[in-house]
């Protein structure tokens, strides 16, 4: 079932950029599919976002050697002037190096931020290395740069650039911003090491756009006792537009939905399981924020999210109140036969559930997937269905089902740790 969901979503809808007509089509598709699967109370909860429209994008080194570069605009980038721009490139080995550049030193120039991320199982490199994308363009603008270009936040070595959002805080100047592929970043670094001046021609016509339509899709599998707060399982329905959003996050929607249904096979669980297919996660977590606001008056018990591809679950992290220690032990025991170990890190959920977790101090279970190859594909044209291993996808569904069989049948109060 999980394979069918992600295969059909990526085939029939494809890329689902937040705020776009294809994200809207995906919401309609989700309502029809969840209804067909037997979910109840299936509905769209609309909201509007500050969105992003992709335009033409090209990059060429014009000196000291001519080279065409593979580039993609970052979300929230503003466009270059009509016809593009040509300017001197200033190379920075890291975001920290850019931060200590003198004020005004980049006036009229292009900042290039190098940023070599390496793969690891838990994906923890994405936090620090991803900051070059999230923060770098705003920092460059504060130094006078007219444009910022980064090495893609990824671990691959092909010529697919990685998109993703960048942030321009209130009061900062927005500038055009793009990411080049890893081999192109290597090329720029080699030329920079020679000390020869570099110039680049950039055309980045993408632009932000206000008041774009988005929305969440929610659906319930009612439990035997409707007075008990539900279990919330989440994914995000939107995707970036370069690939078809298979691993990010079509797989997550397939996993949580298939597991919620499989948890019914032994009989109706005690608690309702609610599925949230959130909208507009990629551009700023708007779906999670909207859900927390819309459901602030409804108590929830526990939240989980799948948003890290489809490779095997290897560890479980928990965030449970002291009184729920026996519940945690049951979860660990259910997962142990699959070789899934229990970690010591406090579970945090993910972007689509963090707002409701924070608001209601919810319990959290994080099923940590193997992220060794995730950032080879993340936010690239290579995020396509063929990258999903059906056997590993099935292992995810089995792990999620095991957890739901425990937590959705817990009769007592469930809560997260007190801060």
Kindly describe this structure.
The protein has eleven helices and 16 strands. The protein has 419 residues and is α/β, with parallel strands linked by helices. The chain folds into two domains: 244 residues, Aminopeptidase (3-Layer(aba) Sandwich), CATH 3.40.630; 153 residues, 3-Layer(bba) Sandwich (Glucose Oxidase, domain 1). The longest helix has 18 residues. Strand 14, helix 8 and strand 15 form a beta-alpha-beta unit.
Which series of helices and strands comes N to C?
Answer: HHEEEEEHEHEEHEEEHEHEEHEHEHH
Assembly state here? single chain
- According to CATH, the fold-level topology of the largest domain is Aminopeptidase
* Global Rg: 22 Å
Q: Domain count, please report it.
A: 2
Helix/strand/pairing class, anyone?
alpha/beta
N-end to C-end Cα span: 39 Å
What distinguishing features does this structure have?
419 residues, alpha/beta, Glucose Oxidase, domain 1, 11 helices, 25% strand, eight-stranded mixed beta sheet, Aminopeptidase
């Amino acid at each position: 079932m999980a394979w069918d969901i992600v295969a059909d979503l990526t085939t029939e809808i494809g890329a689902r950029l937040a705020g776009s007509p294809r994200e809207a089509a995906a919401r309609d598709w989700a309502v029809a599919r969840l209804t067909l699967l037997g979910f109840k109370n299936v509905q769209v909860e609309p909201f509007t976002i500050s969105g992003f429209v992709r335009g033409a994008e090209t990059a060429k080194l014009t000196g000291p050697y001519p080279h065409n570069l593979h580039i993609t605009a970052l979300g929230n980038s503003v466009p270059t002037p009509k016809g593009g721009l040509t300017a001197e490139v200033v190379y920075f080995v890291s975001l920290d190096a850019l931060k200590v550049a003198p004020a005004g030193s980049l006036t009229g120039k292009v900042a290039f931020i190098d940023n070599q991320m390496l793969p690891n199982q838990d994906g923890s490199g994405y936090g620090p290395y991803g900051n070059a994308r999230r923060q770098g363009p705003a920092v460059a603008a504060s130094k006078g740069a007219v444009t910022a270009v980064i090495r893609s936040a990824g671990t691959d070595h092909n010529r697919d650039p990685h998109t993703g959002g960048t942030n321009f805080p209130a009061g900062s100047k927005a500038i055009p911003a793009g990411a080049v592929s890893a081999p192109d970043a290597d090329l720029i670094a080699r030329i920079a090491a020679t000390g020869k001046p570099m110039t680049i021609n950039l055309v980045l016509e993408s632009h932000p756009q206000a008041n774009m339509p988005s929305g969440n899709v929610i659906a319930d599998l009612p439990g035997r006792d409707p007075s008990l707060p539900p279990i919330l399982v989440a994914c995000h329905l939107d995707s970036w537009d370069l690939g078809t959003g298979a691993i990010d996050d079509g797989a997550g929607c397939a996993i949580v939905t298939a597991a919620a249904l499989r948890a019914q096979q032994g009989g109706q669980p005690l608690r309702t399981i609610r599925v949230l297919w959130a909208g507009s996660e990629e551009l700023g977590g708007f779906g999670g924020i909207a859900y927390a606001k819309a459901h602030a008056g409804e108590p929830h018990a526990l939240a989980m999210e799948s948003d890290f591809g489809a490779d095997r679950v290897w560890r479980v992290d928990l965030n449970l109140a002291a009184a729920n220690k026996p519940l945690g032990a049951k979860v660990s025991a259910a997962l142990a036969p699959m070789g899934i170990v229990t970690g010591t890190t406090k579970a945090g959920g993910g972007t689509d559930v963090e707002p409701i977790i924070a608001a209601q101090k919810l319990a959290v279970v994080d099923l940590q997937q193997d992220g060794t190859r995730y950032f080879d594909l993340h936010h690239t044209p290579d995020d396509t269905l063929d990258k999903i291993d059906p056997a590993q996808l099935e292992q995810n569904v089995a792990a999620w089902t095991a957890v739901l069989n425990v937590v959705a049948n817990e009769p007592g109060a469930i809560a997260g740790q007190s801060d």
